[in-house]
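Page 42, continued from yesterday. The earlier attempt failed because a stray header line got pasted into the input along with the sequence. Redoing it now with the clean sequence only.
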Amino acid sequence: MTIGDGAPLWVIAGLNVLEDLDLARAVAAHLRGVCAELHLPFVFKASFDKANRSSIRSYRGPGLEAGLAQLAAIRAEFGVPICTDYHEA
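This time it went through. Structure tokens are written below.
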């Protein structure tokens, strides 16, 4: 996978934060389909922990273990590369 320096444009898109696997599957399926129609490479991106929330009561995500399991399931089911982010707590 090559990004930049004359390589094709890649679409890196998905969910701000993982919620449940069914939603992640629906988003991945839709984005993969749109990118395929446009002949654009696609990377699924979602966070498993959003530590930078403005409220301590806000949903942060499923956590490391459950979140990585969801991302692995998306990669296996849809055959797309995965990207996530992390934050210091």
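Notes: The radius of gyration is 14 Å.
Reminder to self: strip header lines before submitting.
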